[in-house]
């Protein structure tokens, strides 16, 4: 066997392994989408039906409630979806704003106790959420933040801040300090140099951080389940409460999940090049 043939065989085996791993990873997503488009009989058919006529009934049920003997009406799902968007995007916007300034400060200035402060920020993510949920619940009860947008937004800011500061600091460390100094020589103030010279270079890191923070805030369940009420309920909490008149309505659940994961997939797709750079750039180098 010559070297060219051996190289082609190795390349073929690599592609085959990649195809197998990809198929295994995508199969639950395919099954979720397929189930959302099946009738109830087709969902539980044995053997499973791989070929079927897609029906939109489950997606209609997500937005339009049809109960036997009662007048049909709109569901509360749009309200829950709005809550997820509002809470996630509000917390991410504030995390990016505060985290960017904090990361830039840690990167450029020799602060007293700098490493201690960085460790303190990171330590907020060391405790598992289940260990702090009761103290936070009691604190929120005293402060009147239960079933309140501000309460959940503040909580998600706190939990994402450590990740944002540490990740964006790595990006700012990669940007030469001479860029700031050149801008200040040209007459810009420190903040002017940050906005005009440094910030455009850090947009990749900011976009990657925003994607990771969105995924964490969008999918968070425990605190939303404990701290939210009907008015501030997010989609993950609403999903846990979906039950039909004759048991769990898997068609409605899968259709809701398909609708719910679509914005994150679209958002991640458009920012995938920044996401890949965020994984392989600042965080890996860890500077």
Give the structure's gist in a few sentences:
By secondary structure, this protein is mainly α.
Strand order of the largest sheet: 1-2
The tally of strands reads: 2
- How many helices in DSSP terms? 15
Largest sheet: 2 strands, antiparallel
The mean pLDDT is: 86
Uncertain ranges: 282-287
Q: Over the alpha carbons, how many angstroms does the gyration radius reach? A: 24 Å
Judged by helices, strands and strand pairing, the structural class is: mainly alpha
**Helical residues, percent:** over 70%
Give the end-to-end Cα distance, rounded to a whole number of Å: 46 Å
- SSE arrangement, N to C: HHHEEHHHHHHHHHHHH
The rough form would be described as globular
Features:
287 residues, mainly alpha, two-stranded antiparallel sheet, 15 helices, 2 strands, globular
Give a written overview of the molecule.
This protein has 15 helices and 2 strands. The protein is mainly α and 287 residues long. It has a two-stranded antiparallel ribbon with strand order 1-2. A hairpin with a 7-residue loop joins β1 and β2. α8 packs across α9. The protein is globular and about 75 Å long. The two termini are 46 Å apart. The C terminus is likely disordered.
């Amino acid at each position: 066997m010559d070297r060219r043939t051996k190289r082609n065989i190795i390349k073929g085996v690599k592609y085959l392994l990649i195809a197998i791993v990809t198929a295994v990873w995508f199969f639950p997503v395919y099954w979720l989408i397929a189930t959302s488009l099946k009738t109830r009989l087709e969902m539980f058919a044995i053997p499973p039906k791989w070929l079927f006529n897609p029906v939109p009934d489950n997606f209609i049920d997500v937005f339009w409630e049809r109960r036997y003997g009662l007048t049909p009406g709109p569901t509360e799902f749009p309200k829950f979806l709005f809550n997820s968007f509002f809470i996630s995007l509000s917390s991410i916007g504030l995390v990016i704003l505060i985290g960017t300034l904090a990361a830039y400060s840690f990167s450029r200035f020799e602060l007293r106790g700098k490493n201690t402060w960085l460790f303190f920020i990171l330590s907020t993510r060391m405790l598992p959420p289940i260990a702090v949920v009761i103290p936070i619940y009691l604190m929120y009860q005293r402060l009147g933040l239960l079933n309140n947008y501000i309460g959940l937004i503040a909580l998600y800011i706190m939990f994402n801040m450590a990740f944002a500061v540490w990740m964006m600091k790595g990006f700012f460390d990669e940007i030469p300090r001479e860029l700031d100094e050149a801008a200040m020589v040209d007459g810009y103030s420190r903040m002017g140099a940050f906005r005009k010279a440094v910030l455009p270079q850090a947009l990749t890191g900011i976009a990657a951080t925003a994607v990771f923070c969105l995924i964490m805030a969008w999918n968070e369940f425990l605190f939303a389940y404990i701290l939210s009420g009907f008015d501030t309920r997010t989609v993950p909490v609403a999903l846990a409460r979906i039950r039909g008149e004759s048991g769990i309505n898997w068609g409605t659940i899968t259709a809701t999940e398909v609708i719910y994961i679509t914005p994150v997939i679209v958002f991640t797709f458009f920012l995938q090049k920044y996401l890949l750079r965020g994984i392989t750039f600042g965080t890996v180098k860890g500077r």
